[in-house]
Amino acid sequence: MIFFSRTQSSKTTCLSLRFPNTGINVKNLVLGFYLIFAVTTAFGQESEVVSGSYSKAPLKDIILDLEKQSGYAFFFLPDWVSKDTITVTFNEQPISSVLDQVLEGTALNHYLLEQEKRIFLLENTIVYDELPLYFFGRDSSDVNSGTVRGARNMPPPTFFNEDIRQTRKKYGVSKVGKADATKLKQAYMLNGTAVNARTGEAIEDLAIRVKGTNLLSVTDANGTFKMELPAGYNVLSIRAMGIAATEREVIMYSDGSLTFQLEEGLQQLDEVVVEADAAKNVEDAITGSEQIDSEESKNIPLVLGERDILQVAKALPGISSAGEGATGLNVRGGKTDQNLVLLDDAVIYNPQHFFGIFQALNPFTTKGVDIYKGAVPVEFGGRLSSVFDIRTKNGNVEEISGEGSIGPVTGNLALEIPLQKNKSSLVVGGRGAYADWILRSLDDEALKNSQASFFDGILKYHNRIDDNNEVKATAYYSRDAFSITSDSLYNYDNRLFSVRWDHRYNEKTNGALVVDNSRYGFGIDFDGEANIDFDLDYTISETGVKYKLRSLLNEKHTLDYGVAAKLYSVNPGSIVPRGGESNVNPVFIDQEQALEGALFVGDEINVGEKLLLNLGLRYAFFAALGSGTQRTYQDGLPRNESTVLDTISYGNGEVVKTYGGPEARVSARYLLKPDLSIKASFNNSYQFLHTLSNNTTVSPIDTWKLSDLNIAPQQGYQASLGLYKNFKENEYEFSVEGYYKKMDNVLDFKTGANLFLNENVETEVLQGDGTAYGVELLLKKNRGDFNGWLSYTYSRSLYRFDSEFSEERINNGDFFASNFDKPHDVSLITNYKFSRRYSLSANFVYQTGRPVTYPIGTFRFNNADFVAFSNRNEFRIPDFYRLDLGFNIEGNHKKNKLAHSFVTISVYNVLGRNNPYSVFFVTENGEVKALQSSIFAIPIPSITYNFKF
């Protein structure tokens, strides 16, 4: 039996509901059936008019005021109106219209009985004032015909039974959206986020399944997911590795969003998680994307036992470097400066230590990296080849924890410190190298006074203020210093800072505001015996702001849009005398400034079960700014001193030259079968930054140059097509993807060019065309005692610099191989678990030798001997191959102990292969001799102790 009673106290009118012995919680829904008997008298009446103006007023106060003005009796539960504050103004408007405005941003609906002067407030739901046709047994043809009143096949009212909820009861029922009688549907879209209740970190690869159905969704790297749920009551089964299995009740009243805070668990990897991860590879529309978790580098043997996600990235198809120990990565035939590397939304210009041997990222504070080498998301721009979006961990919000390692060359420590329990935390990480002892121990007198060291530190603050607001701030600094000779000390450093505010505006829209600053610089301190001591310095910095939003329009459209801008400041180089006795003349190159901006919008369109589209448009803008001077040259002639027309001076902030244009982001996925899909994409982009280098491989002291009056931005166009397939119940994952890339205005240098400290560097560089194409294959085994992956890439990277003038032409204007062109690249990563504590890992790499320019003869002129060289990059150094082995020993798995340990014993370059780093030529006694240099020509054993508490 259900009883209703009306109580009044201090003019407050509430509806009290009692449900003795029923076990059925129908709250406000049953109210609708009670009201049906009074509905027929409610039509055709005029509403009372009311006026009011409120600023952040409690909803309850507004309701009481409206009750007083209108004479209507309001029925509601007090907790429904206790949490919202409203800002609204209305004047002489009907009470129904006013309530629409007042309740617009809340979860409440209203229902009026004009004749009885009553207004019923309802949380989430609505009053059903007519029964659907299926209630009377009418068939679907009648329902769909719409020929009779009430033919709409609306979903039935929602009920749930308290007695069968069991362990789900402690979480409560989550109500999503607010019902609208004009928009009732059989299913609604849920836009969800999953976070770790202890750390606040997003949980990726979490499987959410609707019990009793085949509906399944998986969270992405940001912990977000979307899925269509039947209207009304649903039970979601939630599973992921390391997360306690749970079930959550959700009532869908309309499209909306929901955040799950989940507890950690110690269960083994559930099979459904593996299936979901594999399905993500097949079902996503994005081509050429990869994800690496920092933990994935734990069992891969790398040089000197260092974990390194960037070295792991090189084992994936389409990603390589110019050589062992070379700084920078080459992605799909692109130069190293064509990669956008982000650390918590801020650019890091050189993410590697010690010429690329170590990464400049603390592996214990790094969560993972998303790599985009094909279809780049619309929010990213400014580079032609790829995006490396590196994310750091959020700290532990419950207790102090940490992780560290001690190796033969480096030491590492990271601490997670809770600041406010279950809300905010601080992550502090520090890492340093102590490699000087290795150089001093070598039997080479020239290296006795050498040094090589580096360190990096990171600080991250994270605060989940409430369900709608989250703040993250990251500060990072790294520095390298090395000296191979006794008179020169080289150094380079990265510094960055970023603040990100994530805000949920409503159930369908989330936004993020990011402010960041990055700086990269290098210097040379020369202190020799002659009076030519000097200090050399170079820096580039940028300050950026980005505001982006994501809106769930409906079940078919998810919109991403925003605006971004950044200000560049470049000190192209300076040299000053060191000490009072130096005879060096100071040199200062004019500072460069520029403004870069972009507007972007993208739409993920779910056309049907098989076809998914991702369409985006980005408009990029760039303006080179003063102060400084720029030369103009005669058209149709080489740029040199003899063709200068004029020198123009620009004031501070004055626009020198503008560039820009639209960038397309188009990708599509079509499901041939549930485990087989075909994907295609096309994108184009602008790059307004260039590196200047005439080294064979990338150096930490290469300089960055902004586009200006004489150097145009690079442009790139890429198309890709791929096939993705899973086998044996998703245990195996296979993909094959081909791509073609065209590049315009890429930079190279003239023979004998002087690039550094050159006021007119445009006279030393050339801009030409580039072409890259290839096929990438990846076979991955995702589970089992034996797991890993095999990747193969066939690729070509070619450049052409043609002109009617010989001094601006390379290789007679024909295409030639780039410095990093390696047609064949094979990587094999394997791991075999003997038990939960012992495993063996192997890493094998084979690459075609990179191109090189050889001398092909000598000639004598004016009684002097000269060397004649081949065309640029006409020959190749020997092929590269290397095998690494590692044995991993986990500590015991006792629960109550001070720290968990992990020991890695590894041998880098087990075969002792003398892989050439470079080949160069010297003349001795009138004879030209070829010499080869190598980085690691012998096996390098190491042992690293890792601990976690």
Automatic annotation (TrEMBL):
Presence of keyword Transmembrane: yes
PROSITE patterns: TONB_DEPENDENT_REC_3
Entries under InterPro entries matching the protein: Beta-barrel_TonB_sf, CarboxyPept-like_regulatory, Plug_dom, Plug_dom_sf, TonB-dep_rcpt-like
Signal peptide: none
Domain TonB-dependent receptor plug: 305-382
Main location: membrane
Keywords, ordered alphabetically: Cell outer membrane, Membrane, Transmembrane, Transmembrane beta strand, Transport
Membrane topology: Multi-pass membrane protein
Location in or out of the cell: Cell outer membrane
Statement: the UniProt record of this protein carries the keyword Disulfide bond: no
Gene3D superfamilies in alphabetical order: Carboxypeptidase-like, regulatory domain, TonB-dependent receptor, beta-barrel domain, TonB-dependent receptor, plug domain
Matches recorded under Pfam families: CarbopepD_reg_2, Plug
Family: Belongs to the TonB-dependent receptor family.
Protein name: Carboxypeptidase-like regulatory domain-containing protein
Organism annotation: Maribacter chungangensis
